[in-house]
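Priority: medium. Attachment 1 of 2:
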């Protein structure tokens, strides 16, 4: 769903540009599609998995550009998931075969990464919770 939103935004950007040349927007769209299809989400990681061990586990499927275990900002402890980026989408597609396999004692989940929709942080709400009229 997030991918469709990103792709649609790039299409609109290309269509509404005043330039008569569509080469740049099309190249931008293709790069976005390529980037999204070569990045994987890896969930269910053990607490002991670090960036290097994640990279080593997935490098058998192709050239890993980046492997990152996401950590808690305050404690520095793994949050149990990470991302692996490949140089090409064929390698990423092959690495989907790791889904359900064991890595450091845990069965991991592997899928294509989707762009997270940004939303404002905080409790939201607002207003007076006093319950009375003024």
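Attachment 2 of 2:
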């Amino acid at each position: 769903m997030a991918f469709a939103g990103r792709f649609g935004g790039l299409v609109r950007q290309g269509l509404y540009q005043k330039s008569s040349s569509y080469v740049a927007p099309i190249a931008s769209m293709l790069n976005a599609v390529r980037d999204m299809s070569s990045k994987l989400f890896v969930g269910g990681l053990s607490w002991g998995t670090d960036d290097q061990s994640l990279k080593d586990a997935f490098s058998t499927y192709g050239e890993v550009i980046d492997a990152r275990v996401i950590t808690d900002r305050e404690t520095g402890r793994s949050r149990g998931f990470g991302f692996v980026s490949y140089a090409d989408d064929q390698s990423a597609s092959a690495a989907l075969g790791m889904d359900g396999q064991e890595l450091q004692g845990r069965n991991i989940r592997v899928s294509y990464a989707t762009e997270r929709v940004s939303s404002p942080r905080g409790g939201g709400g607002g207003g007076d919770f006093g319950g009375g009229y003024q």
